[in-house]
TrEMBL record:
Belongs to the bacterial/plant glucose-1-phosphate adenylyltransferase family. This is Glucose-1-phosphate adenylyltransferase. Residues 313-413 form the Glucose-1-phosphate adenylyltransferase/Bifunctional protein GlmU-like C-terminal hexapeptide domain. Its EC number is 2.7.7.27. It comes from Lonepinella koalarum. The gene is glgC. Homotetramer. Gene3D superfamilies: Hexapeptide repeat proteins, Spore Coat Polysaccharide Biosynthesis Protein SpsA, Chain A. It is an enzyme of class 2 (transferase). One of its GO terms (molecular function) is glucose-1-phosphate adenylyltransferase activity. Pfam families: Hexapep_GlmU, NTP_transferase. Residues 20-288 form the Nucleotidyl transferase domain.
Length: 435
């Protein structure tokens, strides 16, 4: 039984902590949206990227020693980190370092899983960064969290590993690692992505799910990774391999997200989203546009930083009195809207929408042009797309399936530059339009 230990204050703890953000995932469930960009580099909320949430949480929590582990299609992610997150003073020991896959084991072995991504950088951690604690984050979730509270709870518990957890509907819990805890939040059981998720005691329709956020004592992390990599049956994954090992050794504790959440909706409910599918990416953006949003991105008490593009102000031209103008939408800089109706949508920078077009519940990424007399409903329009005049999308899903990508629920339509070019008979084999 782990005993309670005396702990220093949060300020001392964060100075002894290194953050590793795992940002190398393929994001295959987002289909063409992540063909040329890593999922954490995907645009979000009008003028941010998904990874800005994890990075901002770090800065707001006082955690200024950060490594970002990259692998797949990392060009735009690395560029974003270099231009938007290079302000921390190195002379004070603060940094956002990039840790790309470097094939440390041999010339053909990339990162084989989340645990292996940390294992392959372990020598850098031990000899260069020398942390006492390691906070491991996913780079593709939307939420606001004070990580310093989680680190404090970790040290207070006396455990060696702490996993962030959140209550989710049992019907959705098969997508997560699911755990059971005792009254001291010590984890008593952990199952990765179970087909029949166990319910919480007293809450038959709810399961306790892992958020993919972990705090480790650094020495224990090094030891368990070295032991696990020798196993012939390992998946090199934290959820499948490392957490069960910590559970078996009796050093695994849970941290409820409600204790450190800094972003709640107007009803006081915590907000956390995994934007790993077209539906969840679309919905998380649409969550921002209402008068009382699910997540308040304007709250400067816990700001979400980024690298906004410097643009001219947006321009709106309305000569037709019968056109309903902009309603409940986020419009970024440099947009030009002419006699177009926009409702419950998110427009990123430098979007052009021409006469008599209607855009409803859409997420429009940067530098998109929408022609005249177009009707768009429940769409995600990727960067650089040019929508021809008189185009209708989102009104006939079966017709949309022939031309574009329709989400698994049939609710959202993804449109990319290559799809439009293919419709126009253009050659897309040499399309090198990097994000």
């Amino acid at each position: 039984m782990s005993s309670k230990v005396a702990v220093p204050n949060k300020y001392e703890l964060v100075k002894e902590t290194l953050v590793l953000i795992l940002a190398g995932g393929r994001g295959s469930r987002l289909h063409e949206l992540t063909d040329k960009r890593a999922k954490p580099a995907l645009y979000f909320g009008g003028n941010r990227r998904i990874i800005d949430f994890a990075l901002s949480n770090c800065i707001n929590s006082g955690l200024n020693r950060i490594g970002v582990v990259t692998q797949y299609a990392a060009h735009s992610l690395l560029r974003h980190l270099q231009t938007g997150w290079s302000f921390l003073p190195q002379e004070r020991g603060e940094f956002v370092d990039m840790l790309p896959a470097r094939q440390q084991i041999d010339n053909s072995t990339w990162y084989r899983g989340t645990a292996d991504a940390v294992y392959q950088n372990m020598e850098i951690l031990k000899h260069h960064y020398q942390p006492k604690y390691v906070l491991i984050l996913a780079g593709d979730h939307i939420y606001k969290q004070d990580y310093s509270q989680m680190i404090l709870d970790h040290v207070t518990s006396g455990g060696k590993c702490t996993v962030g957890c959140i209550e989710v509907p049992r019907s959705e819990a098969s997508e997560f690692g699911v755990m059971a805890v005792d009254e001291n939040l010590k984890v008593k059981d952990f199952i990765e992505k179970p087909k029949d998720p166990p319910a919480m005691i007293g809450k038959p329709d709810t399961s306790l799910a892992s958020m993919g956020i972990y705090v480790f004592d650094a020495d224990y992390l090094y030891d368990v990774l070295k032991r696990e990599v020798k196993s012939p049956y390992t998946s090199h994954d934290f959820g499948k391999d490392i957490l069960p090992k910590s559970l078996e050794e009796g050093v695994l504790y849970a941290h409820p997200f409600s204790r450190s959440c800094m972003g709640r909706n107007t009803e006081g409910e915590i907000y956390w989203r995994d934007v790993g599918t077209l539906d969840s990416f679309w919905q998380s953006n649409i969550d921002l546009v209402s008068e009382k949003p699910q997540l308040d991105i304007y709250d400067q008490r816990w700001p979400i930083r980024g690298n906004p593009v410097q643009t001219y102000p947006s321009k709106f031209f309305y000569n037709n009195p019968h056109i309903k103008p902009v309603d409940n939408s986020l419009i970024s800089g440099g947009c030009m809207i002419t006699d177009a109706s926009i409702s419950y949508s998110v427009l990123f920078d430098r979007v052009k929408i021409k006469e008599n077009s209607s855009v409803d519940h859409c997420v429009i990424l940067p530098q998109v042009t929408i022609g005249k007399n177009c009707v768009l409903r429940n769409c995600i329009i990727d960067r650089h797309v040019v929508i021809p005049d008189d185009t209708q999308i989102g009104l006939d899903i079966e017709e949309d399936r022939k031309r574009f990508r329709v989400s698994s629920t049939g609710k959202v339509v993804l449109v990319t530059d290559s799809m439009i070019k293919k419709l126009n008979g253009e050659d897309v084999s040499s399309d090198e339009n990097l994000d």
